[in-house]
Design a protein that fits this description.
With 192 residues, the protein is mainly alpha-helical. It has a domain of 40 residues. The chain is built from two helices and four strands. The strands form two sheets. It has a two-stranded antiparallel sheet. The chain has a two-stranded antiparallel ribbon with strand order 2-3. The protein starts with 12 loop residues before the first strand and ends in an 8-residue tail after the last helix.
């Protein structure tokens, strides 16, 4: 364990068993939890017992050089264990590197896809704006054409109105002139 659970205790190795306090009995001798507080293992410790050697190996085995093992670990079994630990460590590092590479490639593909989608979205937005601009221009041209048509129709209507007023005025002038002639002739135009 990389942390110290029981800081007040000097021991590195603690053994916990299933125990009934009321009846003062252990459930079984074949079941126990061993806690190894590896932070308490010092690099310069004198390795007297096999337990000391194993604790040291658990703590520092991944960094040991097979050609420069401490004298108490320079045995066939410990060399084999250190070699196996190195293999696992190497394979773990390779696996970690492979997984990181896979993750990076996945992230790259995801980012590339996101970028492509963003580009497509921007292109669609640009096309939408162009379409809207074209629609506005078309609407403006249609409005301007309609204004010209209305202006022309208004001019025609004004000309027709002026012509009608002129014709009405001419007819009125003719009627007044005729009435004046009739009166001069002694004829009452209201009775005609």
């Amino acid at each position: 364990m990389d942390d110290v659970l029981f800081g007040k205790m000097e021991k590195v190795h603690l053994r916990f068993e299933i125990y009934d306090r009321e009846h003062n009995i252990i459930f079984t001798n074949h079941l126990a939890i061993h806690v190894l507080q590896l932070k308490k293992v010092k690099k310069d410790v004198i390795l007297k017992t096999d337990k000391d050697r194993w604790l040291y190996l658990f703590k520092y085995g991944g960094n040991l050089d097979l050609d420069c093992l401490p004298k108490s670990l320079d045995t066939h079994i410990f060399k084999k264990v250190v070699n196996t630990m190195r293999t696992f460590t190497y394979e773990e590092q390779e696996r970690d590197l492979y997984e990181r590479r896979q993750l990076a490639e996945g992230e790259y593909r995801g980012l590339r896809n996101l970028l492509q989608e963003e580009r497509k979205q921007r292109q669609l937005e640009r096309q939408q704006r162009q379409w809207e601009r074209q629609q506005r221009l078309t609407a403006q041209k249609a409005f301007q054409l309609k204004q010209k048509q209305l202006h022309s129709a208004l001019e025609v209507a004004q000309q027709q109105h002026l012509a009608a007023n002129s014709a009405f005025e001419q007819e009125r002038q003719e009627r007044l002139a005729l009435e004046a002639l009739l009166r001069k002739a002694g004829i009452n135009p209201d009775h005609v």
